[in-house]
TrEMBL record:
Keywords in alphabetical order: Oxidoreductase
InterPro entries in alphabetical order: ADH-like_C, ADH_N_2, ER, GroES-like_sf, MDR_fam, NAD(P)-bd_dom_sf
Native organism taxonomy: Eukaryota, Viridiplantae, Streptophyta, Embryophyta, Tracheophyta
Domain Enoyl reductase (ER): from-to ranges: 38-333
Source species, domain of life: Eukaryota
A Pfam match: ADH_zinc_N
Protein name, per record: Enoyl reductase (ER) domain-containing protein
Membrane keyword on record: no
Length: 338
């Protein structure tokens, strides 16, 4: 059983060398007495920025740190090889938490979702139809309270979550602009995901001026993925009664001293609602989300770009790449094809 293990807790930016590959033997049977478990073959693994939090020892973090020397854990799509759980049987496809390895004994599959609709690429259940999709859906529709005609700004807009938020906002009839870190990503936003406009934040010296250019009358909704100086510039450009959904602050995760935001008083003068959220609190909406999104995917009204890394060997580099913007779209690791 090939595995990606955490070698040491991460200090500062994550490096490939914080992880290593290991091969161990595994008995492809559920051990006697291990009830309510499933033994799975992992097909696709999801690389997610939050995993960095589990690679560090952080007091009071909302998830536990990974164990050193054990396989990393993340979202993935897997096939059930054997089950001692009444809800799963051999051959079922599921998505949920699994190990970064070829085969995993999932001892608590109750948090996994069974995959019923297989008319779409299975890898979508690591992103569009998995955690990232739910994050975009809950963050935009539940937290932002969008209305037709409003102006929406999304940072890290071409990523797993951002590309969907933009498409949801377009479906709602909003004016949508995104920022991303390369020309290719900006092209994707404008030409593939249907954003009204987009800019490369790495080429803008003055975020404030850039936002004024794209939003001369201000921003109603900001879907926050990066934090720091971008947030500060957005606050200057928000409209009265605007909403900010704080999904992530990836520009801050690796800083020893996170940057301060100096103009939070804009929240008062502009009566802005700024709300952090965790997708974990919204999984009860998953059936409603599927009902809404599936027809759009099948009619080609929602599209999704994935960045496929081949083989478990490529998983450490793929994960680390999220923090330098190497991924174009949702970062997936292909462990096995069915
Ligand atoms: P992405 O697919 O967007 O990948 C991360 C992207 O972030 C990179 O491609 C890069 O794009 C951008 N980035 C990396 N470093 C920086 C930086 N220093 N400054 C600005 N941008 C940077 O990831 P996800 O879509 O999976 O996640 C997006 C955000 O949502 C993250 O902040 C994540 O933590 C958060 N999140 C929150 C959840 C919740 O429940 N609240 C759940 C899931 C995700 P670029 O080239 O454009 O810079």
């Amino acid at each position: 059983n090939k595995q990606v293990i955490l070698k040491n807790y991460v200090n500062g930016p994550p490096k490939e060398s914080d992880m290593s590959l290991k091969t161990s033997t595994i008995n492809l049977k559920i051990p006697d007495g291990c009830n309510d478990a499933v033994l799975v073959k992992n097909l696709y693994l999801s690389c997610d920025p939050y995993m960095l939090g589990r690679m560090k020892k952080i007091e009071g973090h909302y998830t536990d740190a990974f164990a050193i020397g054990s396989p990393m854990v993340g979202y993935g799509v897997s096939r059930v090889l054997e089950s001692s759980h009444p809800n799963y049987k051999k051959g079922d496809l599921i998505w949920g938490f699994t190990g970064w390895e070829e085969y995993t004994l999932v001892t608590d599959p109750s948090t996994s979702f069974k995959i019923h609709d297989k008319d779409v690429p299975l890898s979508y259940y690591t992103g569009l139809l998995g955690m990232a999709g739910m994050t975009a859906y809950a963050g935009f529709f539940e937290v932002c309270s969008p209305k037709k005609g409003e102006t929406v700004f999304i940072s890290a807009a071409s990523g797993a979550v951002g590309q969907l938020v933009g498409q949801f906002a377009k479906l709602m009839g909003c004016y949508v602009v995104g920022s991303a870190g390369s020309k290719d990503k900006v092209d994707l936003l404008k030409n593939k995901f249907g954003f009204d406009d987009a800019f490369n934040y790495k080429e803008e010296r003055n975020y404030n001026a850039a936002l004024k250019r794209y939003f001369p009358y201000g921003i109603d909704i900001y879907f926050e993925n990066v934090g720091g100086k971008m947030l500060e510039a957005v606050l200057n450009n928000m409209r009265v009664h605007g909403r900010i959904a704080v999904c992530g602050m990836i520009s801050q995760y690796n800083l020893e001293h996170p940057e301060g935001v100096h103009n939070l008083s804009a929240l008062i003068s502009k009566r802005i609602r700024m709300e952090g959220f965790l997708v974990l609190d919204y999984y009860h909406l998953y059936p409603k989300f599927l009902e809404m999104v599936m027809p759009h995917i099948k009619k080609g009204k929602i599209t999704y770009v994935e960045d496929m890394a081949d083989g478990l060997e490529s998983a450490p580099a793929a994960l680390v790449g999220l923090f330098s913007g190497r991924n174009v779209g949702k970062q997936v690791v292909v462990v096995a094809k069915e």
